[in-house]
Amino acid sequence: MAAPKRLPVDPIAEAKRQWIAHGWEPAAAGMTAVTSVIRAQQLMFARIDATLKPFGLSFARYEMLRLLAFTRSGRMPMASAIARLQVHPTSVTNTVDRLARDGLVTREPHPIDGRAAMLVITPAGLDLVEDATVALNENVFEDVGLTDDDTAELVRIIARFRKDSGDFTDPRPQPDPL
Predict the structure, then answer these.
(1) What is the Cβ-side half-sphere exposure of residue 11, based on CA atoms within 13 angstroms?
(2) Residue 91 belongs to domain with CATH number
(3) What is the pLDDT of residues 33-50, one digit of tens each?
(4) Which end of the chain has the least Cβ crowding within 10 Å, N or C?
């Protein structure tokens, strides 16, 4: 794929200039932050998508397989997967349906809750996610395009934003053993 032609001006900086010129200065910094994060996400997803394409995976499918592969037994309740992936249940169901159709996961009855399903990664799913992880590490995660210090600062800023937005809470300290 050919690299896109670089624009002669930063369109987000130009949008900020226009925001200010139109009298929306109090909102200009926020608009700039939001559109900058969205554009950065698009750039990162383009690299992720290009890396995962040879494996026949979307990032959603990869995340589900990776989540299951991280478990001790390669299985977890569907409700736990939904909570950990932080996406709408319908999206998780559609992702699982496609993975099951491709023989990468199976659904099994929950051992305690007859209404719930357990998701189980298959050996083929495990092999695929391991290979895809190697590719993502090499092509995306080991060099996201920022210095190590900038990467750490960005993660800290976004984590604080997520926490302040109610995305997660700090874990409570564990009591001392009796």
Answers:
(1) 6
(2) 1.10.10.10
(3) 999 999 999 999 999 999
(4) C
